């Protein structure tokens, strides 16, 4: 009898979490953090594999809501408000679901992230955004379900979804320009050299008012005086060139070149020499 009881207890323990054997998850979890402009995005999801199966139209049926991965909800979070499709989405964490089709998908962002798989009872009031995504067929097959942040700019990113031979992407716009503009406006009440420099470089990179950028970079250089670093002078030369002031661009590039040579910075030496050649000064 003791042997029978011991045997029963052993079996019971094996099925109630007492097993010490560790095995890999069939759909391992993944976490990605990505800065887009000034917005931090975090994506958490599980990654099933094909394992010889036909995925879309079979394992994942067409025209039916899918959990977008495996196990618990796929979750995405933003630390600022964002825009998805025509919808403004508040900063926070959201579940992501999809309804795959042969030619396009509908991707849904849902405010309740506590589900295991799709919600037992769907609540339309919890849908914060929907986006239509075109299906792109890939020339190779992706064995393991993959999500990415693609095509990064200061103002947007594409949430990419890849599996089997399918790629779909959903654009997420971020409010970088409004955040930077508000920061510039606030800081300009009492800016320092670094503030003028950052504002000028941002305007140069984003193709905004170049004359305003020129005014700000000049103030930055003026405040730095003889201690203006070569990298700051490099940006001044680029802003002058963009503003059509070749003479000023050449003068700033020569100063930047001299500082870069003194600092032993080969990258800036090359960049300045290349620009001076382009502007006919070497």
Helices, strands, pairings?
Blueprint: H1 2-14, E1 29-36, E2 39-46, E3 74-78, E4 82-84, E5 87-89, E6 92-99, E7 104-110, E8 127-134, E9 136-150, E10 156-173, H2 176-187, H3 193-205, H4 210-224, H5 230-242, H6 246-263, H7 266-278
Antiparallel strand pairs: 1-2, 2-3, 3-6, 4-5, 4-10, 6-7, 7-8, 9-10
Outline of the structure:
The chain is built from seven helices and ten strands. The protein is of the alpha+beta class and 282 residues long.
Structural write-up:
By secondary structure, the chain is α+β, with helices and mostly antiparallel strands. The protein is 34% helix and 29% strand. The protein has helices spanning 2-14, 176-187, 193-205, 210-224, 230-242, 246-263, 266-278; strands spanning 29-36, 39-46, 74-78, 82-84, 87-89, 92-99, 104-110, 127-134, 136-150, 156-173. The strands form two sheets. The protein has a six-stranded antiparallel beta sheet with strand order 1-2-3-6-7-8, with no helix packed on it. Helix 5 runs antiparallel to helix 6 (246-263).
Residue share in β-strands: 25-35%
Strand order of the biggest β-sheet? 1-2-3-6-7-8
Give me the count of strands: 10
Order of helices and strands: HEEEEEEEEEEHHHHHH
Helicity range: 25-40%
Number of helices: 7
């Amino acid at each position: 009898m003791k042997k029978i009881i011991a045997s029963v207890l052993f079996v019971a323990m094996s099925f109630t979490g007492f097993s010490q054997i560790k095995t890999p998850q069939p759909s391992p979890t993944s976490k990605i953090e990505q800065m887009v402009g000034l917005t931090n995005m975090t994506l958490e999801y599980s990654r099933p594999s094909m394992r010889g199966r036909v995925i879309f139209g079979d394992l994942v049926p067409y025209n039916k809501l899918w959990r977008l991965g495996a196990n618990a909800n796929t979750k995405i979070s933003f630390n600022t408000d964002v825009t998805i499709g025509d919808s403004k989405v508040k900063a926070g964490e959201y579940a992501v679901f999809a309804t795959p089709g042969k030619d396009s998908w509908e991707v849904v962002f849902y405010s309740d992230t506590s589900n295991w798989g799709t919600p037992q009872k769907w609540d339309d009031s919890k849908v914060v955004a929907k986006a239509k995504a075109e299906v792109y067929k890939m020339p190779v097959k992706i064995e393991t379900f993959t999500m990415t942040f693609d095509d990064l700019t200061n103002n947007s990113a594409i949430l990419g979804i890849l599996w089997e031979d399918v790629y779909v992407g959903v654009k997420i716009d971020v409010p970088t320009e409004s955040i930077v503009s508000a920061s510039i406006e606030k800081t300009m009440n009492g800016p320092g050299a670094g503030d003028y420099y950052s504002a000028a470089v941002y305007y140069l990179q984003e193709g905004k008012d170049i004359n305003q950028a020129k005014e700000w970079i000049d103030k930055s250089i003026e405040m730095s005086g003889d201690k203006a670093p070569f990298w700051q002078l490099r940006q001044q030369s680029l802003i002058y060139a963009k503003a059509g002031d070749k003479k000023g661009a050449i003068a700033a590039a020569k100063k930047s070149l001299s500082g870069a040579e003194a600092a032993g910075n080969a990258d800036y030496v090359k960049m300045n020499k290349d620009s001076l050649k382009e502007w006919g000064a070497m």
